[in-house]
Write a structure and sequence with these properties.
The complex is a heterodimer. By secondary structure, chain A is mainly alpha-helical. Chain A has helices at residues 7-35, 42-46, 50-62, 85-88, 93-101, 121-135, and strands spanning 70-71, 74-75. Bound molecules: protoporphyrin IX containing FE (HEM) (2 copies) and fe (ii) ion. Fe (ii) ion (FE2) is lined by residues 200, 204, 251-252 of chain B.
């Protein structure tokens, strides 16, 4: 690199640039937080079913569903997207409950299978309500189609 | 090795390599489960294998970063480590915590582990890469604090170099951004938004500072190029990293409920993220070409150059491939993501860690500069086997991903996820074969620590 460009100039670009863009990132974050209430379906969380959805999210996490599935495109790529499963299953929480409930204990020979988690009805409802809540988040039109 | 206390690095490096082996074993298990769905079901479900694969990866990265710091910080600061005993103690705490956590994943159902560790008191589990029980996360914070204290005090009492300063900044950033792992609201959008503050700001932010510092250190040592030149490069590279990479976080905010303007901010800034990786490649080759000495540790230089090339390919090229929002709309969460994740992690962070291990281990084992030729040649074989097979893993997953995006998300009759997976099984078989070659490379790598060790060590041919 040219001699006119000194190490201390490089250092100043590093500190100045990083600080500037970090502050810009904070400003954008602040703006995003202001806009989220209109997009993130928090009405569902604040409504009557709020505690049920919260229980559903806890079950989602405690069983590491994200270790096989994606949720809004993030997670593992071994099993289908679940951010829109409520819609894929015909806007039916019962269909979701039925599916989870009916997984064979020993799997399906030769195929990728979902474990049988032995959830009770209350837990199944919580999970289904959680997935319904996620499906109603405004995701800017993603996924491209119902297959997720 | 110039300072006695540097020797603590050896423990960290050995543990890192052992965890690396575990990581690859579980990768192969998963790779088989991709095509033989009921393999080890229900004993080791896919999600458990995945946790082991990714968490051992993260822990061995941290182990190796710490080992690197314990090695290079005293040498740069020209003083003994502030408290070597603390470094040893933290090593054992970290290793035991990691071991117990992995044992927990494998021995009891995950929900039971959550219960046993009282996750409900402060729920942080069950999110990708952050599956560790909350108590393990707290352990990581304690280890990190003790580590930073030790390294910080060493730097304070010694010579202050740019390499040390950048290394410290990177490590402090690593600890700070990990704290977002403790924030887990019920609101899924907020959860995801701040999850990326740990994950993205690690690999495309502060970890790159660590990468740059280690690379600069090894190049100073092996090429003899003037420190001033190398330090100037280092500053420019990390400046570009943070200038592009911080706002570049936006490439994860396209479709998770965040406002549409992130499609602009994220696409534009992350499209520039390859620049610092490209500069790193130019930097490394330039320094080696301008070398003022022939260092006998040829294989360490090979790893350093390999890092520079593969990080650019994996992070730069494969990252760019899917980072523009109109492309990401179709590739988001497909095998394209997995392809990029593999080559980027391998090319940048696995390889830089193997670079410093390759440079430092012979010295830690009491040699003057390098391993005997036989050992180095075997390590070079390992380098090529692992690197080439990772290129193939990436290519096969990219093939799978393109077909997946096409069959499932484009065209007239989009098909279901599982139907598409059946049709692209061939690519998964090929990936698994490449994975076996990777494992062979790893076995040779480990063998290189034992082969020909009684021979006289390599000397420079100048
Ligand atoms: C023998 C070679 C390997 C095989 C067969 C393998 C296989 C896999 C599989 C099947 C997954 C899960 C994908 C999914 O979620 O559906 C995965 C994830 C992952 N692996 Fe590997 N792996 C191997 C080596 C490696 C290496 C060497 C690294 C690191 C350098 C690595 C890093 C990762 C990462 C970061 C993820 C998470 C990816 C993401 O979320 O996009 N793997 N691996
Ligand atoms: C060494 C640096 C990097 C590493 C280790 C890395 C690793 C990863 C991993 C593991 C993921 C998957 C995360 C998940 O499981 O959800 C990912 C996603 C992604 N990366 Fe990187 N990355 C790096 C650099 C880059 C760069 C420089 C770019 C852009 C030029 C980039 C673009 C992306 C994009 C767009 C995604 C999201 C993919 C999706 O929508 O599914 N990455 N990266
Ligand atoms: Fe990223």
């Amino acid at each position: 690199m040219a001699e006119a460009f000194t190490k201390s100039m490089a250092r100043n670009i590093f500190y100045g640039g990083s600080a500037f863009f970090f502050l810009l990132f904070l400003a954008l974050t602040f703006d995003t937080m202001g806009q989220l209430p209109n997009r993130d379906n928090r009405a569902a969380l604040e409504g009557e079913l709020g505690p049920v959805i919260a229980q559903g999210k806890a079950l989602w996490e405690n069983n590491d569903c994200i270790g096989c599935h994606t949720l809004l495109g993030e997670g593992a790529y071994f099993a289908p997207e679940l951010g829109n499963v409520y819609k894929r299953f015909g806007n039916s929480t019962d269909a979701i409950k039925g599916f989870i409930l009916s997984r064979p204990k020993d799997g399906i020979p030769g195929r990728r299978s979902m474990p049988q988690f032995n959830f009770n009805d209350e837990e199944l409802t919580a999970l289904a309500e959680f997935l319904k809540y996620v499906s109603e988040i405004n995701t800017a039109g993603w996924p491209p189609n119902i297959q997720g | 090795m110039k300072y006695q206390s540097q020797s603590v690095a050896k423990l960290y490096f050995i543990a890192a390599i052992a965890l690396f082996a575990a990581q690859i074993l579980f990768g192969l298990i998963m790779g088989l489960q991709y095509v033989v769905g009921d393999f080890l079901f229900p004993e080791i479900p896919f999600n458990v294998a995945r946790m082991v694969h990714t968490n051992t990866l993260i822990v061995w990265m941290l182990m190796a970063f710490m080992g690197a710091a314990y090695y290079l910080v005293p040498e740069e600061a020209e003083t003994e480590l502030f408290a070597p005993w603390l470094a040893t103690l933290m090593f054992w705490i970290f290793l035991v915590a990691a071991g117990l956590t992995v044992a927990g994943y494998l021995l009891v159902p995950y929900a039971t582990l959550a219960e046993l560790t009282m996750n409900e008191l402060w729920p942080t589990m069950g999110r990708e890469f952050l599956e560790q029980p909350t108590i393990t996360k707290l352990g990581i914070v304690i280890v990190a604090l003790a580590f930073l204290f030790n390294i910080g005090m060493t730097i304070l009492k010694g010579r202050k170099t740019v390499v040390n300063l950048v290394m410290l900044l990177g490590l402090v950033g690593l600890a700070v951004f990990f704290l977002f792992a403790f924030y887990n609201p019920t609101n899924v959008v907020m959860d995801k938004f701040f999850w990326w503050w740990t994950v993205h700001l690690w690999v495309e932010g502060v970890w790159e500072l660590i990468l740059g510092a280690i690379l600069a250190f090894v190049l100073i040592k092996t090429t003899g190029v003037d420190r001033e030149v190398i330090e100037k490069w280092l500053y420019i590279i990390i400046a570009m990293t943070l200038i592009t990479g911080i706002i570049g976080t936006g490439h994860h905010f396209f479709w998770i409920g965040t406002p549409e303007y992130w499609q602009w901010w994220g696409s534009i800034f992350s499209a520039m993220e390859p620049i610092p990786f490209f500069m790193m490649t130019v930097f490394a080759f330039n320094m080696v070409n301008k070398r003022r000495r022939e260092h006998p540790n040829k294989v360490a230089i090979l790893w350093a150059l390999g890092t520079a090339v593969m990080a650019f390919l994996g992070a730069g090229v494969w990252g760019f491939l899917h980072t523009l929002s109109p492309v990401n709309y179709y590739t988001h969460g497909t095998q394209i993501t997995a392809a990029h994740g593999h080559m980027a992690f391998y090319g940048a962070y696995v390889m830089i860690n193997l670079t410093i291990i390759s440079y430092a281990m012979p010295l830690l084992r009491g040699r003057n500069a390098a391993n005997p030729p036989k050992s180095q040649i075997l390590e070079m074989w390992a380098f090529w086997l692992m690197t080439v097979s990772m290129v193939f893993i990436t290519l096969f997953l990219t093939g799978a991903g393109i077909l997946q995006a096409y069959l499932q998300r484009m065209g007239e009759n989009p098909q279901s996820f599982m139907a598409v997976q059946d049709q692209i099984a061939l690519f998964y078989w090929l990936r698994e074969i490449a994975g076996v070659v990777f494992l062979i490379g790893l076995v040779l790598y480990i063998a290189s620590f034992f082969v020909g060790q009684k021979d006289p060590e390599a000397v420079a041919a100048d």
